Amino acid sequence: MAILVTGAAGFIGFNVARRLLERGDEVVGIDNLNDYYSTALKQDRLAELARMGERFRFHRLDFSDGRKLEEALGNEAFDRIVHLGAQAGVRYSIDHPQVYAQSNLVGHLNMLELARHRAVANLVYASSSSVYGGNDTLPFRVEDRVDHPLSLYAATKKADELMSETYAHLYRLPQTGLRFFTVYGPWGRPDMAMWLFTKAILEGRPIDVFGEGNMRRDFTYIDDIVTGIVACLDNPPPDDGAEKAGGSTSPHRLYNIGNNKSEELTRMIGLIEAACGREAEKRLLPIQPGDVRDTYADISAIQRDLGFAPATSIDEGVPRFVQWYRDYHRV
C-alpha cells in the first residue's frame, strides 16, 4: 500500500511514517519544514526515515499552496492519506492568526480536494482535543457540543471537521478525524511542556508552571497514538447510512484518541524530576489565554469500533522521553 503522509517531519507524522515503513508500506512524505520550532530536529527525523530505504520519498512543500501541491505529487501514486500537517500550538495562534488560517483552513481544503480527485480509499486527519474549549463536563465525549473554542487554533480544527463532513456528504469521501490529547514521547516537540520542563531541569533553571499547577491533562504516549492512527487508516468508515462516531451518517467518523486518564500536571513534573535525578524550582503562574484547565478523553467510540487500547502509562512513558532527550542531546 502507498500512503501520503503530510507533516512527515513533524512529531506524529514522523512516527506514523516510520511505523508504516516498518510494516512494508510505501510512504510519500510532505512537509514545509517551517521554523515554528527547530528545523534541525525535523531534519534529523527525516534522516531517520531516509535510512529505512527507497520506500520513503519526501517532497518539501507547503500544502496550502494548491498549485505546488499538485505539481509535486503529479507523478506520485498513493492509495490513502494521513493528513497530520498543520500549524500547531494554542498560544502561538493568539498572535499569529493568519498563519493558522492559511495552513489549517486553506491547507485542509487542499488536501480534501486532492483526496477527492485522486479518489483515495481513506483520509485520516488530525483534529484536536482543543475543540472542546470551555466544556467543563469530563470526560470529553465526541457527542459533546464544541461550539465555543478558546483559541483560533481550536476554531480551525473545528472548521476542518466541518469541511470534512461536507466532503464526506457530497463526494462520499471516507474520512476519520482524530481529536488528539496531549501527545508526548521520544522525538517530541520542543514547544510542549514535557520538553520545556526536562530541558530546564537538566540545565538547572526554574520551570514555569501555568495554572498555578492546578491543571490536568490526558497524556497520550506516541506509540499508542500511532497504533490508533494506523487502525483508522486500515479501517475506512463504511458508506452505509448508519450513524458513525461523532454523529455523521456519511462515511466520516470522529474519535477521541487519548489515554483515558486525566493526570495532574504536578504528577507529570514529579516523574520528570525523578528521571532527571533532581528537583525542579517551580514558578507558579496564572493560566495562559487560550488554555483549558483540564482534559480527559472518553475513548469508548474508538475502543468499540477498532479495539483501541492505550498501553503506556505516564509512569513508563515519561522516563522513556527523558532518556531519549538525554541521548539525543548527549546530556
Number of DSSP strand runs? 13
What proportion of the residues form beta strands (DSSP E)? 15-25%
* Tally of alpha and pi helices: 11
Order of helices and strands: EHEHEHEHHEHEEHEEEHEEHEHH
CATH C-level class is Alpha Beta
Give the fraction of residues assigned to helices.
Answer: 40-55%
Poorly predicted regions are none
Quote the CATH topology: Rossmann fold
Which strands sit side by side, in order, in the main sheet? 3-2-1-4-5-6-11
N- to C-terminal distance: 40 Å
Oligomeric status: single chain
**How much is the average pLDDT?**
95
Globally, the shape reads: globular
Could you give me the name of the CATH homologous superfamily? NAD(P)-binding Rossmann-like Domain
Describe the protein's architecture and organization.
The protein is an alpha/beta fold. The chain has a single domain, classed as NAD(P)-binding Rossmann-like Domain (Rossmann fold), CATH 3.40.50.720. The protein has helices spanning 11-22, 39-50, 66-72, 90-95, 97-118, 152-171, 193-202, 222-234, 265-276, 300-306, 314-329; strands at 2-6, 26-31, 56-60, 80-83, 122-128, 175-180, 183-184, 207-210, 216-217, 220-221, 252-257, 263-264, 282-285. Strands 3-2-1-4-5-6-11 form a seven-stranded parallel beta sheet, with helices on both faces. The longest helix has 22 residues, at 97-118.
Quick recap of the structure?
The protein has eleven helices and 13 strands. With 331 residues, the chain is of the alpha/beta class.
